[in-house]
Write a structure and sequence with these properties.
Layout lengths: L15 E4 H9 L1 H8 L12 H20 L4 H5 L5 E3 L5 H4 L7 E5 L4 E5 L3 E5 L5 E9 L21 H16 L7 E9 L19 E9 L5 H12 L21 H11 L5
Parallel strand pairs: 1-4, 6-7
Antiparallel strand pairs: 2-5, 3-4, 5-6, 7-8
Helix pairs in contact: 1-2
Amino acid sequence: MARHRGTFKPEHSEPYEISRSQIEKFTQCPACFWMNRVKGIKFPGMPGFLLNSATDTLLKKDFDVYRKMQQPHPFMVSHGLEHLVPFEHEDFELWTKALQLGYRTYHKASDLIIGGGLDDVWHNRENNELHIVDYKSTAGKRNQELTALESINLDGHYKNAYKRQMDIYQWIMRQNNFKVSNIGYFVYVNGDQHFSDGMLLGNTDNANMRFDVQLIEYEGNDSWVEDKILQIKDCLYQDECPDHSRTGFGPKGDKQCEYSKLFESMRDHQIVF
């Protein structure tokens, strides 16, 4: 039977598929989520961040070498995590494919399938716990002394989405009966645009970009996830569009939904298509 995805169809017998990114969109603005999932309204998409995807791919290649050997990567050892190894599972490659819903679980209470593409999982051989790992890329500023790149942290409004992402992945793995640690890790690569003299390699058609790498530990909390999924179920069956979010947008998270602002301006000017 055909998978139930895209526009929600209440009469469809198969459970509806909700991705981790769609949960985030609902969290940001239930109205935009409803318009897209229930009414099939297509919003302008963001261009793909291909350089970020490339760093994810390369990092995975790094850890895959040690996944096959079931040994800790030297990066893990250097951060005192020699008791961890990249997790090996026969379906691991499928878990990483976000466009195919990645790693998923069926949530009976909502009759929804929840999934998302994992970046990595590390296995603690001492207590058999799993740690969710997410790769992130940026090109940050210099520190106040102008001597090095500024240290990365998880502060700031937009990085709350990163934390929610980690929480959801921990929840999905627990739903599938894995023993999952609350501690997750972000492997953050920071492109150096300040202290490198360039990137072109001599008279060749090759170039290198230097990255600083940080490992950031995060203590997850997935207690909010189940309630959010049930809210999504209710939203999918609503006949009327929910209200747009009045906050949660902009650098500080204090701005209203950008689309609601557009729609309000159109109404004010009596613009109807």
